[in-house]
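Translate sequence into structure tokens.
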Amino acid sequence: MRFFGLHWLDAGLIILYFLLIFAIAVRINRRVRSTGEFFLAGRRMGRFYQFFLNFGTSTDASQAAGLTREIYRQGIAGMWIQYVVLFLTPFYWFTALLFRRVRLTTIGDFFHERYHSAGLAAAFALFMILMNTIGGAMGLIVSAKTFMALTPKPTAEYSPAEQQSVRQFHELQQLRRDYAEGNLPPESRERLQQLASLESAGKLNAFVSWTDPVVFYLIYAAGVCVYILLGGFEAAAVTDALQGILMVLFSLLLIPFGLQAVGGFAGLHEAVPEHMLRLFGAGTLSEYAWYTIAAMALANLVSIVAVASSMQTSGSARDESTARFGLIGGLMFKRLMMIFWALAGLIALALFAGELSDPDLAWGHLTNRLLSPGLIGIMMIGVLAASMSSLDAAAMAVSALAVNQLYRPFFPDKSEAHYLLAGRVAIVVMICGSVAAALLISNLLELFKFLIAAPAIFGAAIWLGFLWRRVTRTAVITQVVLSFIIMALIPTIFQHWHVPRSWPGFHAQTQEQRVSISVAATQADVEAGRAERIGQAIEKQRLIPSYPIYYEKLARKNPQDPNSPLIGYGRFNAELWLLSLAGCDFSRMSKAGLVASRFLFDALFPFLVLFIVSYVTRPVDQKRLDRFFAKIHTPVQPTPQQDAAAIAANAADMARFEGSKLFPNTHWEIHKPSRQDYLGFFGTWILVGLIIFLLWLMVSHH
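Result follows.
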């Protein structure tokens, strides 16, 4: 028996899962009576819940699907769209300390206290509400696409239009293979461009599904909304422990069946082209060369402090030591699980190379191909759990920001019950917004790239706010406005405004290149006489197509007419436009170089503005700064009374900390690292090296 393509056993497991988390939320709801309980669980979270809370809030099904998708597109180097965060993990050792010691509820509170600006706090709240709404939409989309892949419509029931869409998709894949190998006849180029334009417009598909995304969004979002409204942050933490176990199953389940299907690691290496097994990619063939990864890591390092849920996850810990253990432990465990996501991507590449119209569907197709009923249900629950664990944390962060930065200033001195109701209304609005955004979003890859760089709009001001006394409110306002215009406003307007989309100057492309690459010979190469044995190093020619510089894609306005004018699709790269106005020439650059240039601009431009403007504007009041930095220098005390007394004593005598600063008698507030800091920071780097070694073992021929 099946329900909309789902086996009855899988459907039953999903229903049982939702009933269980609802029961947990109802039980916790009985003791939620204040905003402190609702938003921070009373700041009493121990190491167990901190571990799973950080693992859950940092892990999303969209990340697994995104990593699998990029490996399917780019080979193993595509993993860096997600794995770039690996190199940031050691720095969380310090952010956990800062966020716990600052003793605030939201990052919006940070802007109010550090810069004495309710306007900046409100601006951050609005921006993070938008970011988390988009992030929630991504989780909904990935979950829906996984369900779509698991509920395919039989080909016998396709409509004529659906049959044509699928047929043209397979024709396009064959033409692309001929083009890459240099075997495409000149007369077929027009057909290739025509079908590529249809694909850009979303009119080609590899299959058709029973699942209606709109219905899925509404049912799933309603379920998430109910359990968050009932239990608040503690319900999110407790269910994250359960969901963490499910996410481990979700990460591991495909691997043994997938390796068996491709013939083990030997069969995997035989099926996947050698250049797609290069860990750091090839600059001409991959979008993720080493310099692209470095630029993305730098932009992400600036952004990590501007994640809305960071203050709540670390702030809910008993003390800074617990916060550090939970954050580093949870994140490193996620990095370990990502190895299995990467392996799943390689298995998808081996099984489905060129067969999928939408690479976001790879995870769902793997599940449908490899697993049986029951196991499919467990996988679907894992996907839902991974999305829910991030969505609940995002909803709680949005709720706290909305109440503290947008509602309480206009309606002060209300009861705790009143603010609890306001927080719950904010959660409903945010989740409804995520559903609306999911209906409008078409390109998940570009959203991933946007979410990597966009928090840098506020991230630079947070980093310098913690470390440098001299940064001023005027500088932060100037930097935030300029960065928002360049990184968010112009790209959004130009993406939808027909004038720039149709302007020939924005249709510039890189030059087409023919390159030689060294690869290991396959059985087909031996049979064709190109090699004497399998594994022999041989040279092959690859044709690298031209790439749009300013837009993600270019397509004909009328795909059926080869003389129709070009139209830009996707994000407009305002950063590259400004750099080109300054004299930079991108025409000879690879796609990896274009991506790296954009991320370098996003990472460095905010700091440049902050330093320049801060030196010519008035600093923040000295007493306010002393109070703020006294909290950063004061360890969390056992009781609230002892904590308040210690902070007050230190604020009255900040000179006592000069000897322990790395740069005494300057505006820099960086403490000399302690023995614990050396052990934590460099110990985490050792774990990072171990993860990279495991990745290298996975892609190496043995």
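Note: DSSP finds 29 helices and six strands in the chain.
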